[in-house]
Amino acid sequence: MHYNESLPPGATDWLSPVLHEARERNLCTRPGCTTCGSTEFMRLVQSAIDTRLGCVSKRERERRSAEVLAQGLACLRPTPGTEYPVGAIELLIMTVRAQIPFERPSTLEGSWAENVYERMLRIDAVRAERYRAHVEANDPVRVEALRAAKRAARQERHAEMLRRQRERSIEWHRKHGPPAET
Ligand SMILES: [Zn+2]
Questions:
Q1: Which residues of 43-61 are buried (b: 16+ CB within 10 A; e: fewer)?
Q2: Ligand 1 center to residue 52 CA distance, Å?
C-alpha cells in the first residue's frame, strides 16, 4: 500500500488515539452490528469530534437540539392540502420528549403540535396501563429467567464476534499495512 508518510499540512492525527483506544478496549467496531450498533465505539469517535469542534457535551447538545426542535414544532400550522406526515410529527415529538421527559416544553404551549403531544401522552398512559397488566399476568420470576437466558446467549454471540473481529484486524494489518503490535 502506497501512501504519503507525512500528514496533510496543518492536519492533526486525532483519530489514531481513538482507534488505539478502541483496540485496547476491544470495542465492537463491526459495521452494522445488530447487537450493540457499535455504540460504544461511535460514542468515543463523537466525543473526540466534539472536543475538536469545541462543542459542549453530548448531553447538553442534545438538550439544546430538543429545544430548537420544540420551537420548530411550535411553529407548525397545518392547512388542508398541506398536511404534515403524521409519523414525522410523532417521531419528532418523541425525540423532544426523550430529552425533556417530565415537563412539557413551554415552547409548545398553545401550538398545534401541543395537541399532538397531549394525544400522545394519553395514548402512552393507556399503553403503560396495558403493559402493567400484562406484566402482572406473567410470572416475573419465569419472565426474568427467560430474559436472562436470552441475554446470556446474545452476549456470548457478541463476545464470539468480537474475538473474530480481533483476529480479522490482525490479519487485515498483516496484508494491508504497518502490522498491529498485538
Ligand atoms: Zn456490536
A1: ebbeeeeeeeeeeeeeeee
A2: 26
